[in-house]
């Protein structure tokens, strides 16, 4: 198993707090506006890097034309605009100070612009010139096999080589190995960066080594950021997916005894250095430009509300599993073949392929243990937080009168390798049928609707039949207060919602 061994009635104040956190804007005079024009190159691109023109205004330079439908987004927030027929855009209610814009349009390389927003004023950015892109996708796989999963890492790179990179899709891997678990392929134990090429040998990695980094710490978030920044710069594309490959533990530690330590939770466990990347450090690792299209976890238990909320500003979609997948993880030869065959797929279409083809593959080989996959829209996670905030407040009003019913729902709800991880939709649905209070029922139904809105693709097998795509932490009160509370309260989700308050008064 790929698991580490070892609305309801919302209070106005909470609503305002969450809206502010989600939109990145302020109130009153502490906001401004941004405007500008976006043009696309109509002649063959002279360079591979997006650039900014010095001009400002509606007239494109020679060789360019207006780029309608381009998406303009303020990095680190949910403020978005789309260009009109003239290529014009305007963003309102943007927080003051230095801001970074990401400008993207299908068929073109993504551009990045810097602008300073002044309160009550409209900042005009230089005309953005988008250059055509031949490379549609860059897939960056951060493959930490510096542990007991090494043999599966070798297997997965060979699966990638069954497809290989193409002119439109580059598959780039940073792979770290360890001594003592797999001796194939020269038994090297350091870290290498590879560009995956197609071959017919399913046992030998033949992809060329781009860089030999020697021994590195794959459990250091700085190493992940360095890899992603390097990959984006070296292989610019319309779309980017980062895969974090290794053991995963969702938001928390693998063993209760470790739960007091905030560091013992996360993903990418490097056994040589005895380190890993914590969930609270992931935003720093993935805060890159241009913004990632898909953050994908080939790791256990990562498809949680707490993780998705932590990453909501740093990617478009998050793909992963509520459950602990089998050791081999993804069958890369399936969905990568689909992408290479149809590189014009949108991020949403590609994410859906990862979800469905993973379940189809394991069904085809007769795998019957618990298996789940889903894709969630990260921009909608603020809405999930609002709904869960109201749900937690409503549940608190039902205590202690409905303690027995709430305990029953918690017991019956779909659980995973960590039993305190519950499917959020299933838990809310059970609560709505067991707790006969109007405010609780309304809040639960709001949560269910919000989950349906944020999960764009979901699949599971019969062993996890009540899965809906997002898990949430629902321990008993005593365990929460005795072990998890100090760690959990460091999460953004806990800081911005009432859920941690609810857990502290929930049934034992």
Distance between the termini: 29 Å
Hey, roughly how much beta strand do the residues contain? 15-25%
Main beta sheet: 9 strands, mixed
- Which strand order spans the largest sheet, edge to edge or round the barrel? 14-13-12-11-15-18-19-20-22
**Rg from alpha-carbon coordinates:** 23 Å
Number of helical stretches of at least 4 residues: 14
What would you call the shape? globular
Chain-averaged pLDDT: 89
General description of the model:
With 508 residues, the chain is an alpha/beta fold. Among the domains are: 12-16 and 381-505, no CATH class; 31-130, Immunoglobulin-like. Helices cover 31% and strands 24% of the residues. The protein has 14 helices and 23 strands. The protein has helices spanning 12-23, 150-161, 221-234, 282-286, 305-310, 332-341, 347-364, 381-397, 403-412, 424-434, 438-454, 477-488, 492-496, 499-505; strands at 31-41, 51-52, 64-66, 71-74, 80-82, 88-95, 97-104, 111-117, 122-124, 128-130, 137-144, 169-176, 191-195, 209-214, 239-245, 267-270, 275-277, 292-298, 315-320, 372-377, 421-423, 455-460, 471-473. The strands form 5 sheets. A 9-stranded mixed beta sheet has the order 14-13-12-11-15-18-19-20-22, sandwiched between helices. Strands 1, 2, 3, 6, 9 and 10 form a 6-stranded mixed beta sheet that branches. α5 links the parallel β18 and β19 (315-320). α9 (403-412) packs antiparallel against α10 and α10 runs antiparallel to α11. The longest helix is centred in the last third of the chain and has 18 residues, at 347-364. The two termini are 29 Å apart. Residues 4-28, 45-53 and 254-264 have low confidence and may be disordered.
């Amino acid at each position: 198993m790929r698991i580490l061994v070892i609305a309801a009635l919302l209070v106005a104040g909470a609503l305002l707090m969450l809206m502010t956190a989600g939109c990145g804007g302020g109130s009153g005079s502490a906001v401004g506006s941004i405007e500008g024009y976006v043009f696309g190159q109509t002649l063959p691109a002279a360079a591979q890097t997006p650039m900014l023109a010095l001009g400002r205004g509606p007239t494109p330079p020679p060789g360019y034309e207006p780029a309608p439908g381009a998406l303009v987004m303020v990095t680190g927030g949910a403020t978005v605009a789309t260009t009109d027929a003239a290529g014009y855009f305007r963003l309102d209610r943007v927080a003051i100070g230095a801001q970074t814009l990401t400008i993207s349009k299908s068929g073109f390389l993504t551009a990045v612009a810097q602008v300073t927003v002044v309160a009550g004023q409209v900042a005009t950015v230089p005309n953005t010139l988008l250059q055509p892109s031949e490379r549609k996708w860059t897939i960056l796989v951060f493959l930490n096999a510096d542990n007991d999963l090494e043999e599966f890492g070798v297997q997965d790179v060979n699966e990638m080589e069954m497809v290989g990179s193409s002119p439109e899709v580059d598959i780039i891997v940073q792979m770290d190995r360890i001594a003592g678990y797999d001796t194939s392929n020269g038994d090297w134990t350091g870290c290498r960066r590879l560009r995956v090429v197609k071959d017919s040998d399913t046992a030998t990695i033949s992809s060329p080594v781009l860089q030999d980094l020697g021994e590195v710490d794959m459990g250091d978030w700085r190493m992940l950021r360095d890899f992603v920044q390097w990959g984006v710069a070296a292989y610019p594309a319309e779309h980017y997916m980062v895969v974090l490959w290794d053991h995963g533990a969702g938001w928390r530690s693998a063993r209760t005894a470790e739960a007091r330590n905030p560091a013992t939770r996360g993903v990418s466990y490097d056994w040589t250095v005895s380190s890993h990347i914590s969930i609270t450090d992931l935003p720093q690792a993935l805060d890159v430009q241009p913004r990632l299209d898909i953050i994908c976890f080939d790791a256990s238990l990562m498809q949680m509300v707490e993780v998705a909320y932590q990453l909501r500003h740093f990617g478009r979609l998050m793909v992963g599993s509520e459950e602990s997948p089998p050791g081999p993880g993804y069958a890369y030869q399936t969905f990568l073949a689909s992408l290479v065959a149809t590189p014009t797929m949108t991020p949403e279409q590609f994410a859906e392929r990862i979800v469905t083809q993973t379940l189809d593959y394991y069904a085809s080989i007769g795998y019957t243990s618990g298996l789940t996959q889903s894709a969630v829209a990260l921009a909608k996670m603020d809405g999930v937080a609002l709904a869960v905030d109201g749900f937690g407040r409503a549940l608190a009003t039902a205590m202690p009168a409905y303690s027995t019913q709430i305990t029953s729902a918690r017991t019956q709800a779909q659980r995973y390798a960590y039993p305190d991880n519950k499917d959020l939709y299933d838990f809310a649905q059970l609560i709505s049928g067991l707790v006969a209070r109007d405010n609780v029922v309304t809040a639960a139904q709001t949560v269910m609707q919000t989950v349906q809105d944020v999960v764009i693709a979901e699949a599971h097998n019969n062993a996890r039949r009540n899965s809906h795509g997002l898990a949430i932490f629902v321990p008993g009160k005593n365990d929460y207060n005795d072990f998890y509370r100090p760690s959990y309260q460091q999460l953004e989700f806990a800081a911005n919602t009432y859920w941690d308050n609810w857990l502290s008064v929930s049934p034992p």
